[in-house]
TrEMBL record:
<feature type="transmembrane region" description="Helical">
    <location>
        <begin position="67"/>
        <end position="83"/>
    </location>
</feature>
<keyword id="KW-0812">Transmembrane</keyword>
<dbReference type="Pfam" id="PF01284">
    <property type="entry name" value="MARVEL"/>
</dbReference>
<keyword id="KW-0472">Membrane</keyword>
<feature type="transmembrane region" description="Helical">
    <location>
        <begin position="95"/>
        <end position="113"/>
    </location>
</feature>
<keyword id="KW-1133">Transmembrane helix</keyword>
<dbReference type="InterPro" id="IPR050578">
    <property type="entry name" value="MARVEL-CKLF_proteins"/>
</dbReference>
<dbReference type="InterPro" id="IPR008253">
    <property type="entry name" value="Marvel"/>
</dbReference>
<protein>
    <submittedName>
        <fullName>CKLF like MARVEL transmembrane domain containing 5</fullName>
    </submittedName>
</protein>
<dbReference type="GO" id="GO:0045662">
    <property type="term" value="P:negative regulation of myoblast differentiation"/>
</dbReference>
<dbReference type="GO" id="GO:0016020">
    <property type="term" value="C:membrane"/>
</dbReference>
<feature type="domain" description="MARVEL">
    <location>
        <begin position="29"/>
        <end position="146"/>
    </location>
</feature>
<feature type="transmembrane region" description="Helical">
    <location>
        <begin position="119"/>
        <end position="139"/>
    </location>
</feature>
Length: 156
C-alpha cells in the first residue's frame, strides 16, 4: 500500500496506475468456467429483463435486481476485489445468490407465462434456461467449495 510519502516521490502517472491496479480485470477468470457461467447468467438475466419490460412490467424488477447482483459478483470476482473482504464467506454467498435466483425466476417465469403474450412466453423460456444455468452454478459451487470443507471436518 502506498503511503503519502511514497506518492510524493513518484511521478503522477505511476501513482495513478498504482491506484487503479486494484480494479484490473483478470482475463483468465473471464475465460474460466465460473467466469463464463457468470457472463451467461448476466446475459440471460438482461434478456429476461427486456422481455418483461416489453410484456409485463410488473415482473421486471426481479430480473433487474438479479442482473445487478450478478453484475456485482462478476465485478468482484473478475477484479479479485472480493479477497479484500476476507470475513465474508464468498462461496456461501454465491451459493445463496444462485438458490435465491432459482426460486425467484421459477416463480416469476411461471407467473408470466399465464399472460399468453409473445414476450412473456419468451421470458418463460429464457427463465427456464436461466434456472438451469443457476442450478448448474449452484451445483458447481457446492461441489468445489462447500463439499470439501464438510469432508475435511469429518476427518479431524
Amino acid at each position: 500500500m502506498l503511503s503519502a510519502w511514497d506518492r510524493r516521490d513518484r511521478p503522477p502517472e505511476e501513482v495513478a496506475a498504482a491506484g487503479l491496479q486494484g480494479f484490473a480485470m483478470d482475463k483468465t477468470f473471464l475465460s474460466s468456467v465460473k467466469g463464463i457461467l457468470l457472463e451467461t447468467e448476466l446475459a440471460l438475466t438482461f434478456i429476461i429483463f427486456i422481455c418483461f419490460t416489453a410484456s409485463i412490467s410488473a415482473y421486471m424488477a426481479a430480473a433487474l435486481l438479479e442482473f445487478f447482483i450478478t453484475l456485482a459478483f462478476l465485478f468482484l470476482y473478475a477484479t479479485q476485489y472480493y479477497q479484500r473482504f476476507d470475513r465474508l464467506n464468498w462461496p456461501c454467498l454465491d451459493f445463496l445468490r444462485c438458490v435465491s435466483a432459482i426460486i425467484i425466476f421459477l416463480v416469476v417465469s411461471f407467473a408470466a407465462v399465464t399472460s399468453r403474450e409473445g414476450a412473456a412466453i419468451a421470458a418463460f423460456v429464457f427463465g427456464i434456461i436461466l434456472v438451469s444455468v443457476f442450478a448448474y452454478d449452484a451445483f458447481k459451487i457446492y461441489q468445489t467449495e462447500m463439499a470439501p470443507r464438510a469432508t475435511q471436518g469429518d476427518q479431524q
